[in-house]
Amino acid sequence: MKSQDVRKQFLDFFKSNGHLIVPSAPIVLKDDPTLMFNNSGMAQFKEYFLGNGTPKSPRIADTQKCLRVSGKHNDLEDVGFDTYHHTMFEMLGNWSFGDYFKKEAINWAWTLLTEVYKIPKENLYVSVFEGSKEDNVPFDQEAWDIWKTLIDEDRIILGNKKDNFWEMGDQGPCGPCSEIHVDLRSTAEKALVTGKSLVNNDHPQVVEIWNNVFMEFNRKADGSLEKLPAQHVDTGMGFERLCMALQGKTSNYDTDVFTPLIAKVEQITGLKYTSDEVKNISEEQNKTNIAIRVVVDHVRAVAFAIADGQLPSNTGAGYVIRRILRRAIRYGFTFLDTKEPFINKLVEVLANQMGEFFPEIKSQQQLVTNVIREEEASFLRTLDQGLQLLDNVIAQTKGTEVSGVKAFELYDTFGFPKDLTALILKEKGMSFNEAEFDASMQEQKNRSRAASEVSTEDWSVLTPGNVETFVGYDKTENEVKITRIRKVDSKKDGVLYQIVLDNTPFYPEGGGQVGDKGTLVSANETIEIIDTKKENNLILHFAKQLPENIEAGFVAKVNTDLRTSTSKNHSATHLMHLALRNLLGTHVEQKGSLVNPNYLRFDFSHFSKVSDEELRQVEASVNAQIESQLQLVEHRNIPIKEALDKGAMALFGEKYGDSVRMIEFGESKELCGGIHVKNTAEIWHFKIISEGAVAAGIRRIEAITGDAVKNFYQNQENTLAEIKETLKNPQDVLKSVASLQDDNAKLKKQIEQLLKEKVGALKSELEKDFKEVNGVNFLAKQVDLSMASTKDLASALGSSKADSFVFLASIEEDLPNIHCYIAKELVASKSLNANAVIKELGKYIEGNGGGQPFFASGKGKNAAGIAEALAKAVEFVK
Fold first, then answer.
1. Could you report the per-residue pLDDT of 589-643, keeping only the tens digit for each?
2. Is 243 labeled as ligand-binding?
3. If you write DSSP's letter for every residue of 738-799 in order, what string do you get?
4. Is 635 annotated as a binding residue?
5. Which of 377, 476, 636, 808 is the most buried (most CB within 10 A)?
6. 570 is in an annotated binding site
7. Would you say 472 and 532 are in contact if contact means Cβ atoms under 8 Å apart?
8. Residues 6 or more apart whose Cβ sits within 8 Å of residue 398
9. What's the pTM value of the predicted model, to 2 decimals?
10. CA torsion 469→471→472→475, rounded to 10°?
């Protein structure tokens, strides 16, 4: 059975049993600050489990793209080494929100597996929760009784809290679960060892394929459990593992989910992947297999994350994506001998394979390919740099053990992998101190953990069952009551309070727009609201203190100055998006934005620099729309199909409901939940400040509107006045500046010529000062030159004599600099290293530096140390 059929049969089965089939949410979460990525099928439904929202249907089924690479659920380091862990995977799921419970969920799971998919019953085992005295949760007798009507009791296993009580995190919805495991071993293997003894013991062919979670509790901050308002069902079946079972394989990587990607890697590298069915393979082949598994797994995770709007970067979710991709590049580099970008070539295969069910990977194929190719090229350059740095570390190491601290610096600062360091050192008969490396790693983790540590108390609910509403499209001031509060304590922000209101005018951060600020005012006090965010369908107002009387009536007042400036920038973003598409082409799509009171930032797909002339045309187009005084046309609750039929732009990576809000300004039509001006004339004027690259195929424009434009031109005018004054108020400023530039260019040429002559004269003079020391032509001198000229002189002197060792120093702007040239034949014959010389002698000038074994330079702070550095230089050749 092909994987596409496996997915379709699952969804068809649950559709026939009254479930609404919904599309996968984006893999990158944008409206849940507690998670970077969708790490389970239930993540997009959290608000329904918590009672903060109403689902489209009480019964839902889907297949959800999931990513498990951070936090509690982290499978990254297992990927490649076994045959069933993945970074990205599909989770087939069926959901009940207060509708059916254990009986229906268990019976449907059994029917689908044994009657539709026809998995032999004798290959299946099930588990139920044994209970927990610690949590005061009893043995799940109900699940046991249902299962024993379907399967022999000797195939039912009791599971502990670790295996059979599912929790989303330290806090939140949870409950006992009942897992289904499949035994894929041969008949001979089953005769030797019972499958029951291998369940939950990490056997690669006895694996869990389906988990039925009976969500009935909420884990509170103090660790205790409370009953949820309703009983829910949350099930998840690993699509890749199910395909393995149905296709008669013993490895997920032998299924058609992965074989097309593996075939492409084989074609590119000329290496062969061996199926899991092949036994007794060589150690070399096993390394190849692991590397290929890493590559084909990781490209799926990275490609879908980019398609959903998350670019690789140095922080947050972007850093995680970059780390996954770099792990794949490194395995290719080390074990597949790929020294050029190649992973990007797999994207086409992936798009052809999964594009029918996940259209985003097909429509974003070119962008994903370009971004991955650029990231590959960048990290391969980093690896080259790391190899040079590692050579320097080796040269400075006495003995065969490199400092673990140095190895960690390579890893932490340059991203040079630990195991690649170990591999290279092993080839040279060396190693590094792993205990020191691990200690440095732990120190960094402790610092990071301490910096991001957050303690969140439980909600104190003042108004049970109240549904909070947003009135901010129509009001900036409103009478409100507080419905719930909680305290949050973090190392970064200190103690803050999250306040929920019954009907708030405060806009919560979202869609690129920052959250509103303002005040809560009662008869007796004023509480400052410093930010507004959304979490699990609740609008959270952040304050540094709580009102003395939280049950009082308040007036919520949005800071309208900030709101007005933000709305101008947001509406200008829409106008600019239209202008870019009209000018550059419809391939332009929004890939990220930031809208705050000060400026707007807009990331978009485009494969070349936007020229100055094109930027002027974009500015002109936006300002023409502003001058046209286009009225805002707002559709509050329009069916998404109708909005798209009207030509509205929908953004990839965003999660839309059946009803959406559509914003129109003339030809500009976008799905958007943000705050906008009522008429484009309110924007006043639009000015682009900068344009540049963010990643391959992604450009960024920053721009300003309104008062910020007035301030910009005022600053320009002030600067021009200062220039005029400096130039003694000439009639033609441009002519005066051009004349200055011409004079400067002539003087530079004269100085360069004088310096050349000075360096030439010094070279002739210093050549006489070489001394032979231990078979080496040695020279150590201080000269009166700039750092650049001293460097040139050192190189010229070194090249003038065979077997030369030149060490020069000079002072520029009161700061010392040193340079060392060593003839390449001496580097080889006497194991001399210019980099090591600079590191050692740099101590005397309180500086550092580096370079290559034959030439290195450094700078320092203590010019008085030059004399001692010059005196010590000779010791390297004695």
1. 998 899 999 999 999 999 899 999 999 999 999 999 999 999 999 999 999 999 9
2. no
3. HHHHHHHHHHHHHHHHHHHHHHHHHHHHHHTT-EEETTEEEEEEE-SS-HHHHHHHHHHHHH
4. no
5. 808
6. yes
7. no
8. none
9. 0.76
10. -150
